[in-house]
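Researcher: For the annotation table, I need structure tokens for Ribosomal protein S18 acetylase RimI. Please keep the output clean. Sequence:
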Amino acid sequence: MSTTADTSPASTFRLRPAVEADSSCVFSLLQQLEGYSPEQEAFDKNFAFLLQDEATTLFLVGADLDGTVVGYALTTITPLLHVNGSSAQLQELAVDVTRQGEGIGTALIEEVERLCREREVRQLTVPSRRSADFYERIGYRSTADFLKRTLYS
């Protein structure tokens, strides 16, 4: 997967596919999310699976020039009957709270969109509780409400 998505010539971060060594940084980003407490054992199992699942998963990180991960985007892709092809859903987007507003999230989404187009994905959906304004600023529009039922806690 080619990821050459610098936001400008003076970019302070690079986008790339996630790798095993990113695990602790991604876990730290999850710990910053409001109202969520990641469990290390479950995280480790899922992280390893997602790295291997290139067919239905796009897992990108934004990293400082020194390699420190400062954001990530996790997208799943599945064929759907009602879209006449595949649909992608941005499942998770997180940017370090000290780096928000620098374009990292936008760059991650733009790269997800590029990779989805490359795979001929027909649509990209984004469920969002607190960030609708961010997504609307970059061209997304609200088309549905998502309802959730927790099956296991």
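Researcher: And a one-line annotation?
Model: Residues 13-137 form a domain with the Aminopeptidase fold (CATH 3.40.630.30).
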